[in-house]
Structures are given as C-alpha cells and as structure tokens.
Amino acid sequence: MGTVSWIPLLVALVVAMVAIVALTGVTMAISLRLSNWGVVDTFWGLGFVVIALSSFLISINRGDPGRRLVALLVPMTWGLRLAGYLHWRNPTSRRTLATRRCYAGGPAY
Questions:
Q1: pLDDT, tens only, 7-28
Q2: Which residue among 75, 81, 90, 94 is least packed, with the fewest CB closer than 10 Å?
Q3: Does 103 map to a domain?
Q4: Other beta carbons less than 10 A from residue 104's beta carbon
Q5: Is the pTM here over 0.90, yes or no?
Q6: Is position 44 within any domain?
Q7: What is the chain's alpha carbon radius of gyration, rounded to the nearest angstrom?
Q8: How distant is the alpha carbon of residue 74 from its chain centre?
C-alpha cells in the first residue's frame, strides 16, 4: 500500500458529485414533465453507474488497470440490474399510487 494522493481523490469526489447532481436534475426534469415521481426509483439505480463511470474516467492513467476495471464493472452491473428491476417492477408502484391518492389535493398548510 502506498500513500494516499489527496488532490486526485478530492477531484474524483467533486466530479462524482457534479455527475450525481446532473443526474438528479435530469431525473427531476423528467419527473416534472411526466408528472410522475415514480421514475426516481429507476434513476436511483443509475446513480451507481454514474459514479462508477465518472470515477473510472477521472482515474485514467492512475492505479492498477485491473482494479480500476473491477471498480467500474461491479457497481455498474449492480446499478444497471437495480435500475432495470425497479423499472420492470413498475415505476408506479402501489406505494406511489397510495401517496398520490393521499396528497391528491396538494399539501395542506
């Protein structure tokens, strides 16, 4: 084990944060356009993919390529599987429909 390179680590964290904020913005725009917050479940799984891909790309020419590839493929596989399952399960689940019925008139102040 070597010492930690703090600057590249902080850069990778900031890039991952920006990528997640962008994904969240896209998710919000799609949800507002469709008037369906159930799509959030699908995009939640894609967050793993976005972080893994951004971390992989920011770490080009750093570290062991085999470890970088594993660190890319494992969360990407998990995130795609999770997003696919949640989308297949039906983004408009019973929980979402119950919440919509409960708050159909909007928030009560």
A1: 888 998 999 999 999 999 999 9
A2: 94
A3: no
A4: 7
A5: no
A6: yes
A7: 18
A8: 14
